Amino acid sequence: MTDTVQQAMSLMAIALPAMFAVILLFMGATALLHKTFPVKEEKAAQD
Amino acid sequence: MDELLVGIVNLSWKHVAMWVVAGILIYLAIRHDYEPLLLLPIGFGAILTNIPFSSAVGHEGFLTRLLEIGIYSELFPVLIFIAIGAMCDFSPLIRRPIAMLFGAAAQFGIFATIVIAAMLGFNLKQAAAIGIIGAADGPTTIYVATRFAQDLLGPLSVAAYSYMALVPIIQPPVIKLLTTKEERLIRMEYEEQEPVSKTTLVLFPIMITLIAGIIAPISVALIGSLMFGNLIKVSGVVERLSQSAQNELANLVTLLLGITIGSTMSAEKFLVVEVGIVLGLGLVAFIFDTAGGVLFAKAVNLVVKKRINPMIGACGISAFPMSGRVVAKMALAEDPTNFIIMHAIGVNVAGQVCSVVAGGVVLALVK
Asked: Which of A12, A23, A25 sits opposite B111 (nearest CB)?
């Protein structure tokens, strides 16, 4: 196995979990945002 | 007299072969409506660059100037991202953030292809640029190619845009191979979901930019420009800018981007074995992406009570909205009363964000 192939495999081993971790962070933050600022409260504030 | 014959005298079979390649791209764009906004200008750009002693390319050629100013400087992809951001509606994603997991799974093809490309002898940067075709996102492919493999910019772009157009042909057989008829018939209920508030819509692009930027500063240009475009749309206070980004900016940059990419397809660079391999690997990336998304959805079904139709996993490859439509049509073909379009489009939108994140991760990790 060449160095490049090893590097590519290491990249996959690190990048895939890293990407999922970032996405999980996005998911959590998005859910929190959606919960924190519901439409009802926004409408009530406007009224 | 010699000056008038210089073109004919220097014409080679390679130039003519490239005219044929360009003709195929233009034919696909016009006759079959395959990504015409990009393939048409790319095709014509390839013709302009493959005329011996063409004044369009070279030190003083306008296409070479555009290449330096717009592509190598990364300006065009970033401007396109602003335009795409202004066209995006992230509401389905905000209502159902879990869709992002499918989007992430469907980026598997990027990393699998990087390994395969490395096995075939490409260096790591070239392999990374080839793998990014699997992001199914033209500007991301161009952006990463500009950083990692400028020599392969032409074939990488052609592969990315061609395979995006070919999603209706590439994805269905892969999906059918990996799913049973029973799985394809799974119905997904529509739960009444709370609409998204304007505050959330405004904070979402800012939040995503900050998180992505702090984790991988190198991804800020990509994600930041996408989210900036979205912010001007959802803010509701700069309607003129939003409309300009969606129309004038998108059209103008697309026009220049396509013809400039075409100018990188000179015969000497394009008619080599390496390009054939790149085009093949692009297809591999799309296949692995689709497989990754579908298999992830099947794995999720092992642990959840309400089963999901595993076909929606395939929509995570980005290629918006083509992939979502393809999967929704497949579900309807199996059962004309099974409507999964909303779920499919939600995952498809998630795929757009995830493909940019994947591009950012690759940029951050490949040195």
From this structure: A12
